[in-house]
Amino acid sequence: MKDGTEQKIYYTLRIACAMCFIGHGSFGIITKEVWCNYFGVFNIDHNTSYLLMPYVGIMDIGMGLLILFYPLRAVFGWLVIWGFITASMRPLSGEPFAEFIERAGNYGAPLALLILTFKGRNNFKHWFKIVDVGDVQSNPVIIKRIYIALRIIVFLLLLGHGWLNLIEKKSLLNQYASLGFSNTVRMAHIVGSLEILAACISLIKPVHSILLIFFIWKVLSEMFYPQWEIFEFIERGGSYGTILALWLLVKPSSRYYFNNKQHTSVPERL
């Protein structure tokens, strides 16, 4: 008997992808200064960068809206590629590599959508068909792949954020200062250590109740950016969505039960 777990994961990931790219596109519209560094990877000067930012932003927002209202498989595929490229621009422009893996949700959420709705057909027309809930796969092989993919994605995004805390990223220190912490460096080290521990738990043995704590923590921790709070929060949709999708998959009431020692899925008892 189906409990709708696959459908819930499908909608969760769709909304997560839409949030990620609408939030990211908003930064292009408001011409976020740090984007100049990413355009600089391609030797584009500052003035030209500011001219191009709104167009990139409009494209991102358009992709996010397509995910919500007209989800084409080609859009899923493009978001995997584009999310990977934009995340890569950070270390390529001189930022820590942790910035790339911390954004695993950006390219991981659409990748999980592709896996969840894959029917074994790769012809050109197939990529330009609307993907609806009826395309969601529920066979054990696909669900096992989703389970593995989500564990890796959640591991990476938590590891990356923890790493950024340990290397004392300035914007994170500003967050802790705005919350009233006097020793922001110590706070960053504590949070970073706990997040790396959470990453390892998510990879090795994700537990339903603990994943819920990770989800709540991730949502709360992204609400306190000193500048452009709402856009930063929306852009992290891929992070929230992948954690929530993994939580849905391992919850006791799901018809899928994953034994983390044997990595097998067992139908729920009737």
Report on this structure.
The protein has 270 residues and is mainly alpha-helical. Helix content is 70%, strand content 3%. It has 13 helices and 2 strands; from the N terminus they run H-H-H-H-H-H-H-H-H-H-H-H-H-E-E. A two-stranded antiparallel sheet has the order 1-2. Helix 6 packs antiparallel against helix 8 (140-166) and helix 8 runs antiparallel to helix 10 (184-204). It is globular, with a radius of gyration of 19 Å. The N and C termini lie close together (8 Å).
Question: What is the fold's blueprint, element by element?
Answer:
Blueprint: H1 5-29, H2 35-40, H3 46-69, H4 73-92, H5 98-102, H6 104-116, H7 124-127, H8 140-166, H9 170-178, H10 184-204, H11 208-221, H12 229-235, H13 237-250, E1 256-259, E2 264-267
Antiparallel strand pairs: 1-2
Give the overall shape, derived from the CA principal axes.
globular
Which strand order does the major sheet show? 1-2
In angstroms, what separates the terminal alpha carbons? 8 Å
Largest sheet: 2 strands, antiparallel
Oligomer: single chain
- The average pLDDT is 89
Describe this protein with a few key phrases.
single chain, 270 residues, mainly alpha, 13 helices, globular, disordered C terminus
What's the quick description here?
The chain is mainly α and 270 residues long.
